[in-house]
Design goal:
Organism: Paraburkholderia panacisoli
Oligomer: single chain
Number of helices: 11
InterPro entries: ArgJ-like_dom_sf (IPR016117), Peptidase_S58_DmpA (IPR005321)
Distance between the termini: 18 Å
Number of domains: 1
Protein name: P1 family peptidase
Largest sheet: 7 strands, mixed
CATH topology: L-amino peptidase D-ALA esterase/amidase
CATH superfamily: L-amino peptidase D-ALA esterase/amidase
Family: Belongs to the peptidase S58 family.
CATH architecture: 4-Layer Sandwich
Strand content: 15-25%
GO molecular function: aminopeptidase activity
CATH class: Alpha Beta
Number of strands: 15
């Protein structure tokens, strides 16, 4: 089967719970996502913005919490999220050296909407996450600017693209082309239906580790790569071996949204279950990997100027297991989606990452043999 044939192959469905109608994080009502993609020769990067609702997140904050699974990262804003348990800006994703530009863009956008910020009112907490796309992208060019945040924000909609788009343009995953991935799951909790949606920025893993729905595809690819290296001159083979066996130095940002009524403490617990989905794909959260999960709920907002806050009835902790499973399944599915949706990309210094489909023309047969 050719790579072109593979592109029409549906990704395996992870778990038993159904996905929402869109199969993306936008299945959680009110959530929208926008991308701005830079595809300009050595510049292979971009910005992705997640809006938790269509209002002003500074005036109407949403409950949130994060789990740092491995802290090799350069994010902005996590300290206040951990302390106060709310988001007050959209969530921005980009490359490592673009974090400061996007934080400034978020601050300017908040001030435009609310000129009292930093004067009569408190300051604003920008929230920016990053992964290092320096293999494909000339990260030293500092190409990401405030304008790219604004463009991604303006592009936000419920039609959410996956693959080599937005912040995912230059990302690698298991030595293949990675990027943005999406998924959702609908579950029953004590007789009520709730949605869990996930968006990942996948930039982690070494090739032999890759596992999709329990199938160790990375081992197949690694064995084929070893056979190909054996036919090369000794010096080329040694260099290729060093590339394959070097330590994991990637990262993944995992954003989980839900319409289930949870408080920040419960969202902290939910975010931690993202690690289960990540581990199923083969990750061991390597020393050099920045693995961070953030979960938020759209079930209610926290008004900025309120003297007292009335929460809706919250789900009892004893009934959270369906949401925990949905989180793990949707994160694993979103990582698969990132690999499934990505196209091969060539960037800085001729570096190239092949897509999963281009790397495994017999992907359908390998997955079928597992079933």
């Amino acid at each position: 089967m050719s790579a072109a044939d593979n592109s029409a192959l549906p990704a395996p469905h992870i778990g038993t719970s159904p996905s929402g109608p869109l199969g993306t994080i936008a299945d959680v009502a009110g959530v929208t996502v926008g991308h701005c993609t830079l595809d300009q020769g050595v510049l292979q990067t971009g910005v992705t913005v997640i809006r938790p609702h269509q209002g002003d997140p500074y005036l109407d904050k949403v409950p949130a919490a994060a789990s740092v699974i491995n802290g090799f990262g350069k994010s902005i804003g996590l300290v206040q999220v951990d302390e106060l348990g709310t988001l007050e800006t959209p969530i921005a994703l980009t490359n490592t050296f673009g974090v400061a530009a996007l934080a400034q863009a978020q601050i300017r956008a908040a001030i435009r909407a609310n000129p009292q910020i930093g004067r009569e009112w408190s300051t604003v907490n920008p929230l920016v996450f990053e992964c290092n796309d320096g293999y494909l992208n000339d990260i030293q060019a500092l190409a990401v600017t405030e304008r790219h945040f604004d463009d991604a924000f303006d592009n936000a909609s419920t039609q959410v693209a996956s693959g080599a788009v937005g912040a995912g343009r230059g990302m690698s995953c298991f030595d293949l082309k990675g990027g943005i991935g999406n998924a959702s799951r609908v579950v029953d909790v004590a007789g009520s239906g709730y949605t869990v949606g996930a968006l990942v920025l996948a930039n982690f893993g070494r090739l032999p580790m890759l596992t999709i729905d329990g199938t160790p595809l990375g081992r197949v690819l690694a064995e084929r790569a070893r056979a190909a290296r054996a036919a090369r001159p000794a010096a080329e083979a040694a260099a290729a071996d060093a590339s394959v066996t070097k330590p994991e130095q990637g990262s993944i940002i995992m954003i989980v949204a839900t319409d289930a009524p949870l408080d920040a403490r419960q969202l902290k617990r939910l975010s931690l279950r993202a690690a289960a989905g990540l581990a199923r794909t083969g990750s061991v959260y390597g020393h050099g990997s920045g693995d961070i999960a953030l979960a938020f709920s759209t079930a209610y907002t926290v008004p900025h100027a309120a003297d007292f806050i009335t929460l809706p009835p919250l789900i009892a902790d004893a009934h959270l297991d369906p949401l925990f499973r949905a989180c793990a399944d949707s994160i694993e599915q979103a990582i698969v989606d990132a690999l499934w949706s990505a196209v091969s990309v060539t960037g800085r210094d001729g570096h190239r990452r092949l897509s999963l489909h281009d790397s495994l023309p017999d992907l359908a047969q390998l997955l079928k043999s597992k079933s």
